[in-house]
Amino acid sequence: MGRRRFPISVAMIVRDEEAVLDRCLASLQGVVDEIVVIDTGSTDRTVEIARSYGATVGHFEWIDDFGAARAYSLEQTTHPWRLVLDADEWIVDPDAARELLDRVGAARPDFLGLVDMFQADEHGRLDRTLEPIELGRLLPRHVTYTGRVHEQPTPEIAAQRLHLLLGHSGYSADALAAKEGRNVALLTSAVAAEPANAYLWYQLGSEYSVRGRYEEALPHLVTAFNLTHPESSEGAAPPQRPWWHRLTLRLMIALTALGRHDESTAVGELEAGRWSASADFQVVYGQALRALAVSLPPEHGGVAEQLVLASLDLWRRAVELGDRAEYAGVLAQRASVTAALLAADDYETLGRADEAQRYRSLASA
After folding, report:
1. How confident is the model at residue 179 (pLDDT cuts 50, 70, 90)?
2. Is residue 297 predicted with pLDDT exceeding 80?
3. Contact 189, 177 (CB under 8 A)
4. Which of 8, 48, 222, 290 is positioned for an S-S bond with 311, CB 3.0–4.6 A?
C-alpha cells in the first residue's frame, strides 16, 4: 500500500456495534492505509474492538444528524481518498479489493467512486440473486456529507463505478425493526425543516414502503414525485437524480398495491421514456398494467386483453434489457428473472409450451 500515490483512508461512525464490527475491520486489514472510527456513544466493546485493529478512534456527541457525524469522521482522516463504511458492511474479497484500490490510489482524487453493495442476512450470507446497489462511497478530500438521515455526498461531482464489492447485513428483519422508529423520527423532523426537499420526502416514503406499509408511504412518495415534476412552467424541473428511478418504482408499486390502478399506469405511461433502459421499470409497469386488466369488468374484455398483451411485451423487453446496477434497489428479485417467470406463466396460459420453457430456462440461467 505504500506505493499508492494517493493513499486511502476508511471513515466510519459507530455506536454499540460489537456484534458486527470485527467482520468489517478484519476485511480492511492490508487493504486500506488508515482506519478512522468515530464513536457516537457506545456502551459495549465497540471502542475496544476498533482499537484492537489499529483504528484511530475519536468521539462525536450525537446530535440526531448523520450528515454531521459523517462529515466529522471525514475531517479526522489524513489521506486524499476516503472510503466510507458502516459497521454492518465489509469488503467481500479483500485480495481483489487491495489490487483494485492500488489502481485507484494511483488516480488523482477528482471523482466519486461508486461501490457495489450486496445485501446479506444476519449471518453474512450474500444474496447474489439480487443485482448489487451502486452507492457513492469513495470520496475525494473536497467532498463531504450533508443530510440529517440518508446523507448524501456534497458537492455533486462526476462518478465512476469501481466494482468494489461490499456486503451489508443491515436490512435483516431485526435490523430494519431497530432502525424504523429512529429514521422516521429524523426524516419527519427533516421534512418539516425543508418541505421543498424531494429527496427527504422520498426517503420518508421509502421507510414505510420497504415494510409494505403502502397507505403510510403513499402521501410522502406522491409529494416527492410532484416536487420532481413541477406542473408550472414557472418551476423548472430540477436536474435528474439517480434516486428518481427508485421513487418512480416505489410510487407505482404502492399505487398498485392499494388498487389505484389508473394512477399507477398513468405514472408508468408518463415515465416510460425516461426509464426505457431499465428492466426493473418494465417489470413494475407491466405489473401495473396487468393489475388494471384484472380489475376491469367483463364488458371491457377487449381493453383487458390489450393490457395483458402490453404487459407481456414489457416483461419480454425486461428480459432483453437485462439487469443493471444503477437500477437496482427496489425489487426483491433480479428484474430479468422476475420478468422471465412472468412471461413463462403467460405463455403457459396461452398454450405455447416451447416459449414457456424457453423463458423458464432464461430465469434459471
Report:
1. low
2. yes
3. no
4. 290
Supply the CATH number for residue 131's domain. 3.90.550.10
Q: Are 34 and 77 in contact (CB under 8 A)?
A: yes
**Which DSSP string do the residues of 12-38 spell out, in sequence order?**
EEESS-TTTHHHHHHHHTTT-SEEEEE
Residue 261 belongs to a domain: yes
Residues 162 and 200 in one domain: no
For 14-43, how does the pLDDT look when each residue is reduced to its tens digit (9 = 90+)?
999 999 999 999 999 999 999 999 999 999
DSSP element (H, E) containing 152: strand 152-154
Same domain, yes or no: 248 and 339: yes
Alpha-carbon distances, residue 98 vs 3, 136, 361 (angstroms)? 12, 18, 37
Helix (H) or strand (E) holding 144: strand 144-146
Interstrand relation of 56-59 and 112-119 (parallel, antiparallel or unpaired): unpaired
Preceding peptide of 155 cis, ω within 30°: yes
In sequence order, what are the beta bridge partners of 90?
Answer: 167
- pLDDT tops 90 at residue 175: no
197-242 per-position pLDDT tens digit: 999 999 999 999 999 999 999 999 999 999 999 875 455 556 778 8
CA-nearest of 270, 271, 266 to 246 is 271
DSSP class per residue in 291-337: HHHHHS-GGGHHHHHHHHHHHHHHHHHHHHH---GGG-SSSSS-HHH
C-alpha 61/C-alpha 72 separation (Å) is 11
Residue 188 carries which DSSP code?
A: H
